[in-house]
Every structure is written in structure tokens, then in C-alpha cells.
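@channel sequence for tomorrow's demo:
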Amino acid sequence: MGSTSAENPGGVGRRDLIKRSAALGLVGVPAMGMLSACASSGGGGQGKAKAGKKTAKNPLGVNDTARMEFVLFDGGFGKEYGQDAVRIYQKDFPRATVKFSATQKIQSTLQPRFNQGNPPDLIDNSGAEQMDMGVLVGKNQLTDLTPLLDAPSYDDPGKKVRDTLRPGIVEMGQFDGKPVWILYYAYTVYGVWYSQKALDSLDAKYPETWDEMLAVCAKAKKKGMAGWTYAGKYPYYIPFSLYPMIGKVGGREVLDAIDNLEPNAWKHPAVKACFEAYYELYKKGYILQGTPGLDHIQSQTAWAKGKALFIPNGSWVENESANVIPKDFALSVSAPTGLDSSDKMPFGTIWAAGGEPYIVPAKAQNPEGGMDQLRIMLSEASSKNFTSKVKSLTAYNGGTTGIPLTPGLKSGVAALDKAGSNVVNPRLQDWYVQLQKEKIGVAGLGEMMAGRLTPAEAIKKIQGFADEAAKDTSIKHYKHQ
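C-alpha cells (generated this afternoon):
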């Protein structure tokens, strides 16, 4: 997870942005040392373990003597949180043998074992070598996690696991219908990141309407500070604030239509209005000079050094830029600024989503054990342990009381509280990798923000890309249910 190459533009904490790889949480901690045990040995192919008896203490019916194997992606979150959760499993099932290993080579290590029919029981399918989820689902290689979601939660037998999760987590694990194939463990807040200290120095508050945004940028410019910067070489960071703004202005259905590749979805008036608003930042000279040539690290560094006020990003930015963010920066995140009072959704509407995808293979020898290990991880204690160790929220809706929160994490929690149910989760970056990254991001938004396309030209171009993807029979198409 330490790479910051062009192939892995989020660097630590994001890895390959579009593969939803490693850390989609409030994170980006430096990679810890590789674990020497590399999950390469097979599981022996002994066939499925006989399920155990379901009891109040063992609601999934785990065979308490069966071996359980857990393979974790050894990335920015490290492996300690997994090891801690395994200790709880061993305490609950003292007669069971647990094999835990961590590797960065998920696909090359595990794909052969899927093919041989002896995969592990629980996998953190993350990182640059993430196995393709669509392929795994399409080939019926995953276990439906509905029994886990319907099981009593680890802390409260009166509450199902699904009732303890953050908004959107269950839906993200679905592909065209009801089964839930993936449980995303980490949770990221996307939005507009800034220094509260810098905003205070301008005697300004965070702008809620676009007129206010332009006024704040004008104030900043007078003080020699740009209003905005962004990862110009990887302009698919721009949607982290632009997409939720489109949802705020036009309603969730506009984002759903875009995700569904519907004809003319990009020609919606809300899209036009938001593209024109962002283009105005370029036209008025409110974007840091040279931004189109900057990568994510360079743009974040310029912003952290006070050269620009706002940057669209995800919550991994706190750790990824920890070495350049000043101690008194007062790192903050806000939901995107809207247009005006006619917006369909209230100010506070934000994009937040799960990351760190966990799966239980269909041919796992002990799928009940794999699911119960996940149930343990979704307890309050395990969630708090993860958050305090790696500065990331988890899918568990809570787990932050009583632990000291870093400024960015604290701000992210406050932004989620403000959003309430107004959380949007555009799916293009999960469903259509190339479309979102190279076409909409680089060839569309990147060109518009560099002033090489007008908003109307960018919309026409992007709609063309979406239409091509809709007609492409070589890719699987998904739709919001």
C-alpha cells in the first residue's frame, strides 16, 4: 500500500482508486512489514467441514473443532487488527485451529486455490492484486453473506448484524439483486477538505451556496491563495465533491441514472449546472496555477502548505499527507457546496462509502467460521480497535466513543452526523473502471478543468463515453435495484 505510482494514484490508503483496492477508509497509514507466512499453501482440499449446532452463543452454527483460515491484505491498515480479531475467535472456539496470514499478492496467491477448489474461509480481497469481484460473483464463487447479516450482532443478541451497519454497506455488497456477496469493512468520507485555520484567517465560513464559494475564493485570491487545487494528473478525484454536488442539486435519481448508463443521463440540468459552476473556478482564476500537471501527492502538498484553500479528496488524505499537514492546520472536511436554495437535497449531502472488501468463498471448507470471524470484527470492541489503530471508520455504525479522534476523523464523523440519511454513493467507480477513470475523469473532467473543453463539450463527450459503455457487450452491466 505504499505505492504512489500513476497506476496507484491514491498512494497509501487508496492504492488503485478504481479497483476499490486497499484502504477506502479514513486512512492511509504506512505499510507495515510483510508477514512471512504468505497463504500460499493450500487448504488441503478436505471438503466442507460439518456445520456445528446453532446456539445463542454460536448463532451461525460454527463447527467448534473445524479449522478456519483467514487471509488478510497486508496493506495500509496493517495486519494487527486482523490478528486481534483472530484472538477473539480462538477464545470463542478454543478447540479450533486458526490459520491467519497476510499478503500483498491476493490474486496470484489465491486464484489458483479458487481454481483447485480449496480457498480460505475468509479473504480481505484488496490491494493492487485484488481479484475481480464481478468475475467471482458471475462464476458463483462466493458465499451469500445474508446469514451473517441476519445473525444476532456480537454485542447485542436483540440486534441483527445488518442493523448495526453504516448506510450503503449492505447495498454495496450486492450485484443485481438480493444476495450480499461482499462485506466492505472500512468506511470513507469523500468531500471538500480544507484547513479551518486558513478559513478563519479569511474571516470566512464554509460556503453553502455557489455564490458564497466564489466570494470565499475571491477573498483567498486577494491574500495570494488559490481557492482550489486537485490531482490534475488523476482528475477522477474531482468527482469526490462533484458527484455529491450533482446529487444535492438534482436528487439521487440523477446519480442513479448516470450509474445505470441511461441515455442522456449526463444531459440533466443538474449536471450542466454543476459542470458550469466548477468551470467558473477555472474561468475566474481560482484554481492553483499548474494544477493540471500535479499528481495527488503534489496537489495535497501544495494545499497542506497553504497554497490552495480547498481540495476534493477522501478521508485517507489525513494520513497520506500527515508528514506535510502542519500541527495547527485544523484539518476539516465538508459536504460539497450546493448551488442555491432550489437544490433538491439539503446542505450536508455527502458521499460516503465502504472499502476493504471481505468475501467468504463458495468452496470454503468452513464458511460458518469465516462469517463468524467477520461478525466478531463487526463488534464495537473490534471496530474501536481498528479505528484507534489506523484512523479509519469501519462499517460498524458507531465505535468512536471513548477513543481520541484525529482532527480529520473527528470532522468526518461530524460530517456524517450532519448528513444523516443524506448520504449518496455513486457506483461508477465500482461498476465501470475504465469509463470512470480514463474517460469521464481524464478525457472529460480533466480537460474541462484545464480549460480545454467547455462544460457543454465535456458533457457531450462524457455522454458519448457512457453510451459506448452501455452498448459494449464485453462488459457486465449493473443497475440500481
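heads up for whoever presents: The chain has a mean pLDDT of 89.
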